[in-house]
From TrEMBL:
<dbReference type="InterPro" id="IPR032819">
    <property type="entry name" value="TruB_C"/>
</dbReference>
<dbReference type="GO" id="GO:1990481">
    <property type="term" value="P:mRNA pseudouridine synthesis"/>
</dbReference>
<feature type="active site" description="Nucleophile">
    <location>
        <position position="47"/>
    </location>
</feature>
<dbReference type="GO" id="GO:0160148">
    <property type="term" value="F:tRNA pseudouridine(55) synthase activity"/>
</dbReference>
<dbReference type="InterPro" id="IPR002501">
    <property type="entry name" value="PsdUridine_synth_N"/>
</dbReference>
<feature type="domain" description="tRNA pseudouridylate synthase B C-terminal">
    <location>
        <begin position="181"/>
        <end position="239"/>
    </location>
</feature>
<dbReference type="InterPro" id="IPR036974">
    <property type="entry name" value="PUA_sf"/>
</dbReference>
<protein>
    <recommendedName>
        <fullName>tRNA pseudouridine synthase B</fullName>
        <ecNumber>5.4.99.25</ecNumber>
    </recommendedName>
</protein>
<dbReference type="InterPro" id="IPR015947">
    <property type="entry name" value="PUA-like_sf"/>
</dbReference>
<dbReference type="InterPro" id="IPR020103">
    <property type="entry name" value="PsdUridine_synth_cat_dom_sf"/>
</dbReference>
<feature type="domain" description="Pseudouridine synthase II N-terminal">
    <location>
        <begin position="32"/>
        <end position="180"/>
    </location>
</feature>
<keyword id="KW-0819">tRNA processing</keyword>
<dbReference type="InterPro" id="IPR014780">
    <property type="entry name" value="tRNA_psdUridine_synth_TruB"/>
</dbReference>
<dbReference type="Pfam" id="PF09157">
    <property type="entry name" value="TruB-C_2"/>
</dbReference>
<feature type="domain" description="tRNA pseudouridine synthase II TruB subfamily 1 C-terminal">
    <location>
        <begin position="246"/>
        <end position="300"/>
    </location>
</feature>
<comment type="function">
    <text>Responsible for synthesis of pseudouridine from uracil-55 in the psi GC loop of transfer RNAs.</text>
</comment>
<dbReference type="GO" id="GO:0031119">
    <property type="term" value="P:tRNA pseudouridine synthesis"/>
</dbReference>
Amino acid sequence: MARRRRGLPVNGVLLLDKPRGLSSNHALQRVRHLFQAQKAGHTGTLDPMATGLLPVCFGEATKFSAHLLEADKVYRTRVELGAITDTGDAEGEVVERRAVPRLTEADVEGVLSRFRGEIDQVPPMYSALKHQGRKLYELAREGKSIERAARRVTVYDARLLALADTAFELEVRVSKGTYIRTLAEDIGQVLGCGAHISALRRLATGPFTSEGMLTLESLEAMPGEAERETALLPVDVLVDHLSWLEVDAAVASRLTHGQQARVEAGDLVEGETTRLYRDGIFLGLGTVTGPQEVAPKRLLSTAAD
């Protein structure tokens, strides 16, 4: 006898404004409980100290969440000078203090210019990366330090927003896998005084921006699951950057039964992934296998209904 899944079959994407002090997983579980959803997952972990955009995928949307993990991101951060912490942020213990020189905007801009473009970055010990099956932050809490290989990341832009005597604010647009804590530490090292971050807010990830974000409080204030579901974005927003193809009922039937199908389209590129629709309803993704041939790649379970 098949085991019945608990919860409601909720599908879609929520743009959550994660509060400070909650882990991404804790925030996810709070939201999942509010929606009484069978299945949910977040895309791109934010540290407990960080706030801002955390896309949460429900149900069928989880099948396409990997597209967001590859996305570029935008952050705003406050960099505190003169103190180095073991975590790279204000949550950690100060391990070294240094004098802060009198800095001008030109001084900071000169250093920022060295970090724009492709750079090599060593991931921090206080991160969720794994070593021999264990997360690095678990090892760090035990006082252990593991050698980490540098990774190539891209800082597309680093814009100075404000400068005070011992701190400055930045807005940065970066590639996946970029640690803002490490970026701030490296900038502080070049400035000669060390640094850590005291605030971090994610403003954008992939196609999503802070516009339309909802807080936990606003979700909790809604009277029920039906009202909350109106706040969800459709599943296909996760793959909106891909080409699309409208198919007829016969083609849809073949694809949803796992079969390759011939389509009437002249602008397909062999090897590309395309969105599939029938009567404007999203079916999932297909792979172009020939000039007029498409094979199913990842379809909604509801596509065969």
